[in-house]
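ok new one. same drill as before - structure tokens go in, u give me an amino acid for every spot. 533 of them this time. try not to just spam alanines like last time pls lmao
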């Protein structure tokens, strides 16, 4: 068995050796057992079901929610000489009927099916007949996290996939996902009745990705600086809103980059054309909302940039994971400011979701903000969120935490400064101005600005007016952002996003708690230093 798997790997797929856990997974599934595979994007999940399907009798049924990807995969398999086909809503009746005939005749090695299609009585009865014929080799459930209602890719039909196990208990099942967080993994096992399946968990580390987070000052300029350092490279720039996608794509194009917009509001034809250009041409940048990316298999994406804060650390990991799938160096760069945090808090609070869901989303956002503000190795923080301890190399015996040497915090260790006095001024100014203004206005008061708004509210008469001229506006923005991130200030997310004190602010105001903050490096210097490293 071992030799024939190795043989098929070379002969059909053209790979010399298995990667990571692939060999063990293939052997396990080919022997007829169930598996739950957790492997990061680019890890080589497809082979884990494609190869056992070829080793076993009958057809391998692959459930996938990604219609665009189905076609690509089937084409790639056919080029390798594998008898593959797909069934989804894009096929015309004639073609679908032909695929069904092939299925019944036992002429297919692999059949990709959209979940809603698979669950139709018609398809299930076809499957019954196929099973009685040459048989079903296995069921592969790709993107298995779609079963989780807490994830953003929730597909209700995934919940019903247990029918496969109930009807054909002897056919092995393999569920696969690149979702790294343990609660989702537990939910997959439970919902798909895979509690007893063997789990194959790969490390989620992507060592070739260099992580960096920088404070937002002039986002467009900062993005341009970053992208200029990647001239000729393919990349993805993520924005929160469709409007921002359009603006950012136009801005990059004005500055000589082949940047194309992508979001759900763009005409389907244009969207598909933009995606094709990104996949086929070199050096194309796609500026997108998160609608773009799931199932995009482009190995040489050299950077992923976030100009807005993603909603969770899982989302961030998934999105950045689209960079560097070929294993070559790639950048994951994010530019974030207090405004992002305020906006996301408001979006959560003002959504239709129930209280439980809102709490969960706030917590997810907290974890991401913790990552952004951390002074530790980013990789350690990221992997710790997925319950994984980062321990590269063999020399972890002394138990010391090891840093990755390939993130901004490792390459340019951030400095901390005693910001106790600045924090007291900031908190006091928030309090005196009535706890209803945003950071920009409070900073104007601290810096003694002469603005219309300040005069209108009489804020030039506050005792804190002008007490903060010792720090520049950028430094103040860093102070406010970190005070919010550390829970010393909170955002009124139900209203206009004004700042107010929290339970913990008092200790700082009374001088009982010192505040150490991260020093904000000048963004340009920072980008340059990272590039040189
Ligand atoms: P995933 O689905 O986990 O994101 P894929 O299955 O698309 O990953 O594989 C990612 C890339 O790695 C593909 O280009 C694939 O051809 C390649 N690959 C997978 N397994 C091997 C292997 N054993 N040796 C070399 N390349 C491999
Ligand atoms: Zn690091």
């Amino acid at each position: 068995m071992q030799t024939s798997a190795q043989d098929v790997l070379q002969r059909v797929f053209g790979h010399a050796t298995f990667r990571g856990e692939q060999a063990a997974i293939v052997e396990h599934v080919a022997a007829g057992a169930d598996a739950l595979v957790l492997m990061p994007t680019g890890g080589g999940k497809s082979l884990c079901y494609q190869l056992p399907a070829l080793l076993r009798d009958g057809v391998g049924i692959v459930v996938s929610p990604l219609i665009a990807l189905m076609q690509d995969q089937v084409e790639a398999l056919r080029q390798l000489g594998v008898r593959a086909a797909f069934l989804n809503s894009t096929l015309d009746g004639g073609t679908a009927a032909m695929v069904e005939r092939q299925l019944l005749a036992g002429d297919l090695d692999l059949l990709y099916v959209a979940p809603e299609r698979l669950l139709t009585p018609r398809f299930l009865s076809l499957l019954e007949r196929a099973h009685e014929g040459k048989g079903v080799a296995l069921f592969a459930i790709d993107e298995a996290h779609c079963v989780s209602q807490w994830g953003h890719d929730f597909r209700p039909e995934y919940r019903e996939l247990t029918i496969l196990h109930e009807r054909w208990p002897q056919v092995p099942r393999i569920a696969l996902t690149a979702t790294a967080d343990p609660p989702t993994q537990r939910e997959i096992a439970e919902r798909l009745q895979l509690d007893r399946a063997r789990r194959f968990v790969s490390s989620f580390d992507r060592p070739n990705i260099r992580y960096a987070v920088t404070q937002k000052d002039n986002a467009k300029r900062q993005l341009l600086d970053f992208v200029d350092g990647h001239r000729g490279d393919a990349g993805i720039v993520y924005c929160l809103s469709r409007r921002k996608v359009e603006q950012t794509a136009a801005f990059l194009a004005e500055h000589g980059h082949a940047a194309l917009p992508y979001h759900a509001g763009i005409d389907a034809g244009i969207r598909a054309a933009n995606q094709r250009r990104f996949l086929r041409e070199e050096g194309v940048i796609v500026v997108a909302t998160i609608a773009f990316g799931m199932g995009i298999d482009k190995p040489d994406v050299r950077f992923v940039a976030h100009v807005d804060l993603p909603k969770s650390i899982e989302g961030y990991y998934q999105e950045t994971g689209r960079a560097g799938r070929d294993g070559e160096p790639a950048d994951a760069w994010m530019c974030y400011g207090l405004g992002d945090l305020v906006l996301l808090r408001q979006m959560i609070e003002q959504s239709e979701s129930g209280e439980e869901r809102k709490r969960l989303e706030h917590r997810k956002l907290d974890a991401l903000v913790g990552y952004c503000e951390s002074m530790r190795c980013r990789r350690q923080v990221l992997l710790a969120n997925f319950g994984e301890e980062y321990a590269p190399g063999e020399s972890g015996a002394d138990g010391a935490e090891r840093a990755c040497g390939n993130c901004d915090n490792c390459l340019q260790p951030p400095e901390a400064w005693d910001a106790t006095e600045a924090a007291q001024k900031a908190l006091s100014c928030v309090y005196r101005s009535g706890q209803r203004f945003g950071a920009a206005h409070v900073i104007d008061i601290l810096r003694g600005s002469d603005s219309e708004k300040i005069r209108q509210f009489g804020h030039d008469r506050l005792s804190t007016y002008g007490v903060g001229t010792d720090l520049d506006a950028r430094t103040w923005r860093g102070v406010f952002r970190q005070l919010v991130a550390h829970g010393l200030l909170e955002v009124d997310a139900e209203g206009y996003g004004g700042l107010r004190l929290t339970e913990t602010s008092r200790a700082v105001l009374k001088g009982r708690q010192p505040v150490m903050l991260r020093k904000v490096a000048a963004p340009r210097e920072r980008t340059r230093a990272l590039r040189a490293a």
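Residues 17 and 437 are 60 Å apart (CA to CA). and btw Residues 15, 18-19, 22, 39, 41-47, 297, 299, 325 surround adenosine-5'-diphosphate (ligand 1) (CB under 6 Å).
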